[in-house]
Amino acid sequence: MKESVILIMEADATLRTRLQALAGRHDCTVRVTSDPPRLLRALHDSRVGLVILGSSSAGPDAGLELARQIRLGHSTLAIILLAHPSSEALAIAALKAGVDDYFPSPFDLNALQASIAHWFPPSLARRHDTAGARGTVGGPHAPVMIGDSPAMRAMRASLATVAATESTVLITGETGTGKELVAQYLHRHSPRRAQPLVCINCAAIPDSLLESELFGYERGAFTGAQTPKVGQLQLANGGTVFLDEIGDMSLYAQAKILRVLESREVVRLGGTRPLPLDVRVIAATNRDLQHLVQQDTFRADLYFRLHVVHFPLPPLRERPDDIPALLTHYLRERTEQTGRVIEGFTDEAMAALCRYAWPGNVRELKHLVESTLLTASAARITVTDLPAALRHSKPEELQEPQDERERVLWALRTTHWHRSMAAQKLHWSRMTLYRKMVKYRIVRPEDTLSLLNLLVVFSNLLGDYSIFTGFWYGSCGTFVV
After folding, report:
1. Which segment, 22-36, 47-61, 256-270, is predicted with the most confidence on average?
2. Exposed/middle/buried for 252, CB within 10 Å: 0-12, 13-18, 19+?
3. Selection from 147, 480, 197, 186 nearest residue 330 by Cα
4. pLDDT per position as a tens digit, 305-339
5. I need a surface site. Which of 198, 246, 256, 392 has the fewest CB within 10 A?
6. DSSP labels for 100-133?
7. DSSP secondary-structure letter at 310?
8. Which of 377, 395, 193 lies closest to 280, judged by CA?
9. What are the residue ranges spanned by the domains of the chain?
10. Quick one: 89 exposed, middle or buried, by C-beta within 10 A (0-12, 13-18, 19+)?
11. Three-state SS at 280
12. Rounded (10°) angle between helices 150-163 and 445-462
């Protein structure tokens, strides 16, 4: 018997046969049904690696509800949803329900075949996750966003909304907060998911190599150019380009990127013919771009081109409720990879880890779990297994920022957006706090979701994201998570 299983639910007999033929091209057993309860019973087979949900006699929303049920009990199982009829609201709901791929009717069977190849078998998906800078990132074992704090819940809901659009996204946050993870999530849940996600480290490309690296070059463009080269931007054609550390680019490089964003075409070094470029742009930085604009070290026109939807990522010290879940997740991940049997952390060790400020954020936490796992001598990690800085950490109040706007955000985040408590923390009245929130255009994440949905739909209908940018920035300011 073949090793892996693909389950298919589809009420239409003709489509069910075609889906079975598509799935049967893989080295697997294909089981088909039109009955949701029967499909749920089949999930008890541990060999199931992919579920394709189409229509059923239970109604048009049965596939979505079934996806929710499956995701609750099978967090890593790949799910493809075939929606007929389809709508933007259903696409967003599917992403929130944990669906890995979504196809509206009429179905593109070639794209569906590519999706099956991408998500199945699980071992193939894992290879895609570690494929490097070029290529798609996805699969049931793709990096996940861990945490159930209010900030993370709001973040996931907002990401699901924005991922379904073509909007340019700017991600900001301290080093190690997971900016690339957010970019991967946006691509993996976007209509471009089957196309490449190309990550470009803007800080690592010197100006002398910028054009040849990003735009490519023609044969004979310079000494040693024996064959043409496709630039990194063209490698992302049809997909997504992630411009990491955009704040570290020189003014010369910024001008080149701005030209590409405006014209949506590139000219290779040594060439004369413009080549069309179809990419979605996601940028990230750990620097304050508004401050850089004021200092004339970052172009204002490029800033507003990038600042369509803004996701500022909170540092780990501002969401301490997520620390136990992150520690447990990375410990389980590393024990599976190394084969070591470590059950978890002692209560004392967990308390010390939760008190720590984590200046390196999630990246530091992940590396600490890896190093501690290698030196732990017992079945559970104890305080003595931790570095000295964590063993002696004491509960301390988070340091209050000096900038007034940052102080307001600090007070709101550390009180989980409880306005009365935030006002007390700042020694202000509630009305003073409200006036400052209006002054600095600060909006609670949960309060912005419905407005964000409307703005994204509005901008898509008009096809002019600059309108979305101006309206969003003028009405609510920076989108704060």
Report:
1. 256-270
2. exposed
3. 147
4. 999 999 999 899 888 889 998 998 888 888 877 77
5. 392
6. SEEEESSP-HHHHHHHHHHHSSHHHHHHHHTS-S
7. E
8. 193
9. 4-120, 150-314, 317-391, 404-442
10. exposed
11. strand
12. 10
Greatest mean pLDDT among 117-131, 230-244, 374-388, 467-481: 230-244
In the CATH scheme, what is the homologous superfamily, with its name and number, of domain 4-120?
Response regulator (3.40.50.2300)
- Domain 4-120 matches domain 317-391 at the CATH topology level: no
Query: How many whole angstroms from its chain centre is CA 408?
Result: 27
Q: Are 311 and 172 in contact (CB under 8 A)?
A: yes
Q: Point out which residues pair with 244 in neighbouring strands.
A: 201
Structural contact between residues 100 and 80, judged by C-beta atoms closer than 8 angstroms: yes
Which pairs count as long-range contacts for 405-412, CB under 8 Å and 24+ apart, including other chains? 405/436, 405/440, 405/442, 408/433, 408/436, 408/437, 408/440, 408/442, 409/442, 409/480, 410/318, 412/442, 412/444
Rounded CA-CA distance 27/467 in Å is 49
Looking at residue 445, its pLDDT comes to 57
pLDDT of residue 466: 42
Enter the CATH code of domain 317-391.
1.10.8.60
Residue 261 has pLDDT above 60, yes or no: yes
